[in-house]
Write the C-alpha cells for this entry.
Amino acid sequence: AQKVTQAQTEISVVEKEDVTLDCVYETRDTTYYLFWYKQPPSGELVFLIRRNSFDEQNEISGRYSWNFQKSTSSFNFTITASQVVDSAVYFCALRRTGGFKTIFGAGTRLFVKA
Amino acid sequence: DAGVIQSPRHEVTEMGQEVTLRCKPISGHNSLFWYRQTMMRGLELLIYFNNNVPIDDSGMPEDRFSAKMPNASFSTLKIQPSEPRDSAVYFCASRTRESTDTQYFGPGTRLTVL
C-alpha cells in the first residue's frame, strides 16, 4: 500500500524565516515518483517539482529546495527567506512508475506573516 | 500554452438539481483525471480516463455521479441529483501517457449545493 504523510498541519512563520515542510512516504514499489504541489488561496493546484526514485540528488530552484532521502523515505521541502506570497497549502504526492494513481498527502498549510 | 480549462468556476445549486462540470485538458494530453477536494477527505481521485476510455472509476462515490469523455478535448462530470454533501471543489487534471509525466490541474470548480 502507498501512503504519504505530512505531519505538519499548519506552520506559521515570519517573513524572511526559513521553513521546512516534511513529507514521509510509504511504498513497496522499487521505482516511483514524488511530487510537490502548491495550492495558494486562489485555489488552483500548481506543480512545483517531480523527483524520480532513482535520483537522490537534492534540487534547488531559487528560494525552494528539496531534500530526498530514500533511506528515511522522506522528501522534504525548504523555503529559504520566506515571503508572504509563499502562504499556501503544500501537498506532497507519490506515484509508482507506470501507475496512474497519484497518492496525495493531507497537505501543510503555511502562513507567512509580514 | 493554455492549461487545463474548467467551467464553471463556481456553481451554486439547490439539492436535487442536476449539475454538470466541464473540463478541457491540455492539448496532446491523453490521460484525464477528476478529483474532489474537501476539508474532511482531502483530495480524492474520482475517475481516470486514458485515451477517452474510463479506466478506473472506483473513486466515484455513488451512482449519482457519472463522467464522460466523448473526445480527447472534453470531459464532463455530472451529479444527478445533487446533495449538500456533494459541496466541494472539483478538479480536473491531465497528463501525457508517459509514466514520467506530471499531472497538471485545472483551476477547479467550487460547487455549493444548498
Remarks:
- The CA atoms of residues 31 and 57 of chain B lie 14 Å apart.
- The two ends of chain B are 36 Å apart (CA to CA).
- The mean pLDDT of chain B is 93.
- Chain B touches chain A at residues 31, 42-43, 45, 48, 50, 55-56, 89, 91, 93, 99-100, 102-108, 110 (CB under 8 Å).
